Amino acid sequence: MHLDALFNYEAIKQWLPYIARGLNITLAVAFLAAAIGLVIGIFINILSRRKVLGKLAFYYVDLFRGTPVLLQLSLVYYALPRMLTVLLVSGFGVHVDLRLTAFSAAVLTFSLNSSAYVSEIIRSGIHSVDKGEIEAATALGVSKFHIYKDIILPIAFKNAFPAMMNEMITLVKESSIVSLIGLQDLMRRQQIVTAQTYLYFEPLIVVGIFYYAIVKLLAFTGKRIEMRLHHVQS
């Protein structure tokens, strides 16, 4: 079968730049969520070392790991602003119409969701740290804060790095659901093109190539960084 029968090349040339602009949104949501999720994940591990706060951290992680990210996104975008508005009015008499942009809701949702997984990844990395190194640092009089910051976290980060890269890749792929709240990422722009041209195969294949290329680039970059980390700390 000739490829011209499958691909409408003239149509692809017309709408390819439009779909490609959605790449900025896809990457921005994924990378911002990964960065914020990493910070929150580290903070959760610090809190979990305390008895009462550790319980709250456990329920937080359990909640976000136990519910679909689509449900979380819908609650943050549609329900959270309304709930906060009602609380402000009923509690403080403040009449404010709170709203979240689709981009803010997407970044907030994926940051909170990712932090739950990252916290568990970091926790497993912390448990992999040799206790002998901690005992040696304690014997030398190193403070608990510096042991955690200079010994435990760097080693845990190196050990957990492959899993964290997998979480980054997962974020890129899962971010495709932001199209459901109108954010014009790759998938949303594909849907718009399909609605206007009645073409399904070509736009979907193009978007799939974009996602595949991003994932392969992240995987390659992760491997290079992982090799460098092992080389530096070996």
Low-confidence stretches: none
CATH class: Mainly Alpha
* CATH fold category name: MetI-like fold
End-to-end CA span: 54 Å
Number of strands: 0
User: The biggest beta sheet, please?
Assistant: none
Radius of gyration: 22 Å
The helix fraction, in percent, is over 70%
Counted by DSSP, the helix tally is: 9
Indicate the structural class: mainly alpha
Describe this structure in words.
The chain is built from nine helices and no strands. With 234 residues, the protein is mainly α. It has a single domain, classed as MetI-like (MetI-like fold), CATH 1.10.3720.10. The longest helix is centred in the C-terminal third of the chain and has 33 residues, at 201-233.
Which features does this protein show?
234 residues; single chain; MetI-like fold; mainly alpha
